[in-house]
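Lab manual, section 2.4: Encoding a predicted structure.

Procedure: take the sequence of the chain (208 residues), apply the prediction step described in section 2.3, and record the output as structure tokens. A sample record is shown.
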Amino acid sequence: MNPSPGTMVGSAVEPFVHIKGICGIRMYGTRKCRHKLRVRGVMNRFVPDSAVVPAGIETEDFRVRMLTVSDVVKDYDAVMSSIDHIRSVMGPNTSWPSVDLTLEQNLIDLGWHQKEFQIRSSFAYTVMSLDEKRCLGCVYVDPATKEGYDAEVTLWARQSELKNNLDEKLFVAVRKWLADEWWFTRVAFPGRELSLREWEALPNKRPA
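Recorded output:
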């Protein structure tokens, strides 16, 4: 059965949700190793009540839209064919994606990302070819974990498309999209505008 958008794929998601929901835990081996600030004051600042979350963007090369469980097969193919590149983007503290990542584990990951999007705690987007036949990457928009920033954004492009300069095209398009359509005043791109080492050295954001 192909799960429809908005479905949490049954009870298989529940153990992952319970673990991921613990405040201040880095989930190594999952899609994104990130320190989530789950304090009400911080989350309210991240997404104002009146904010309309952008649906995505489209260029002549790709479409960026919400990542859902329905994308699991195409997403899995992109992830598993891009392991080395993705891990270089995510940094030395991640073990995701591992070579033994399964389709089922990836489905659980996507289910949680979809739920996060629905509750407006963070936003994961897939990057698709215009004909929707191939996943070309992902974009993650998360609450900033460092002082002086509203959001931190991580993105990766399919490894086979690096030779076509997709990574740079995606970065430029996403940076402009965030400036034009989102409510943030200062967005960080760890590993791009700041090195990962410089980013980790910044003071952590204090809960309100």
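Check your result against the sample. Strands lie at 56-58, 63-66, 123-128, 135-143, 151-157, 187-188.
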